[in-house]
Write a structure and sequence with these properties.
The protein is an alpha/beta fold. The chain has three domains: about 70 residues, no CATH class; about 260 residues, 3-Layer(aba) Sandwich (Rossmann fold), CATH 3.40.50.410; about 50 residues, no CATH class. The protein has nine helices and six strands. A six-stranded mixed beta sheet has the order 3-2-1-4-5-6, with helices on both faces. α8 links the parallel β5 and β6. α1 runs antiparallel to α4.
């Protein structure tokens, strides 16, 4: 871009404006990239038609006028299964620097962002009430040897039934809010083991954080602690698709999150693959193919694939030099390779970035993605 700016102009979203100076000229016009229009008349203009491009009173002709963004929508899809405690903590430990960079690149009044967190199942205690009833029945029969309280009692204990401190499930007393029970709805009150277990109380009053949030770091910390009490069947890709393009209840829950004039940045963090409807496990994982997921996300951005950045922290033990060990479901160590999620992310070319979920620090990965987001913003062409 040839648009020239002065230091008094605040930076746009994630450095959305080009940082190269215009070709030398005698007068600099203060111009905002992404404003959706061409520059106006200079001071002292008498209202006549604009001078030719080589006029000394105007900046050089900008062929990219109307290109750029001043808004970014961030979606974090976070696995809340039992093996994710360490990974969630690494994410939360690494986020402050990323959040600080977002704040620095998006000063108030010069751009805006949305940040939404969603987990990977409809409600963390989906099966817990049944477990309470079944285990109580089984325990009443176990004294006669008619019932070995294995599965129902084990699931009840996983739910924390009995009212343990920390927001665990209390048999017969807890019901989800409407949006809590919807796959892909933004998380505002994480509940369960290792969760924040408080109402995050976003200042927006919505199910996502906005740039008006007074303490962005604390708000994200609260939402990102989605816990490790997932119900059976983690479905990260279904959750992502529903969060961005679902209709009905999820659309009502997330109303206003996806904006036509914003670049969309998706981050998926999980230690398992999303194997699809023909998986060899009980839950079956998310429906659809990798291309179905790509098509759904692109459709959510009105067909503008260039407006999407896809990031993933996943198992890398199928890659040369990968650091993950195979996932041990007994110790929760290691991770499962995630070729389908990797394929989804890499479908976006240079705007798709993947790193190992087994790393002890995600800060470097997030810092590297700032450049990718910046480039996407520079090249963004708003609809209309």
């Amino acid at each position: 871009m040839w648009v020239r700016r002065v230091t008094t102009v605040a930076l746009l979203a994630v450095a959305c404006g080009d940082t190269r100076d215009a070709e030398p000229g005698p007068e600099t016009m203060i111009t905002s990239i992404g404003a959706g229009g061409s520059a106006g008349d200079t001071a002292g203009d008498d209202g006549d038609d604009l001078d030719p491009p080589d006029s000394p009173d105007l900046p050089p002709y900008d062929p990219d006028a109307g290109v750029g963004c001043d808004a970014v929508d961030f979606l974090f899809v976070i696995d809340n299964s039992g093996s994710m405690a360490d990974e969630q903590q690494h994410l939360i430990d690494s986020v402050p620097g990323f959040v600080q960079s977002i704040q620095e690149r998006l000063p108030l009044n010069s751009g805006s962002f949305h940040i939404m967190v969603t987990d990977v199942d409809p409600w963390v205690y989906e099966a817990c009430e049944d477990a309470c009833i079944e285990s109580a029945t089984c325990e009443s029969m176990s004294t006669t040897g008619e019932c070995d309280c294995g599965y129902p009692c084990a699931l009840r204990d996983l739910c924390g039934a009995g009212g343990q401190v920390g927001g665990d499930y209390v048999c017969g007393s807890q019901k989800p809010e409407t949006c809590d029970a919807v796959v892909g709805a933004g998380v505002t009150h994480p509940i369960g083991r290792d969760a924040s277990n408080v109402d995050c109380g976003f200042s927006s009053g919505k199910r996502f954080i906005t740039s008006s949030e007074p303490d962005l770091g604390t708000a994200f910390d609260c939402a990102a602690r989605v816990g490790t009490n997932s119900s059976v069947g983690e479905k990260p890709m279904l959750s992502m698709v529903e969060a961005l393009s679902g209709g009905g209840e999820v659309a009502a829950c997330n109303e206003g999150f996806v904006r036509d004039d914003a670049v969309l940045v998706i981050t998926i963090i999980t230690d398992e693959d999303d194997n699809g409807p023909h998986a060899d496990d009980l839950e079956g994982d998310s429906p659809g193919s990798v291309q179905d997921w790509v098509d759904a996300v692109v459709a959510a951005k009105n067909g503008n694939e260039q407006a999407i950045v896809a990031l993933a922290l996943i198992g890398d033990n199928d890659q040369p030099g990968g650091i993950c060990q195979p996932l041990d479901h007994a110790t929760y160590e290691g991770a499962e390779a995630a070729p389908r999620i990797r394929q989804f992310v890499e479908s976006f070319g240079t705007r798709g970035k993947v790193a190992s979920v087994c790393a002890n620090d995600y800060t470097g990965f997030f810092m590297q993605t700032i450049d990718t987001i910046e480039q996407a913003c520079e090249e963004f062409k708003p609809e209309g």
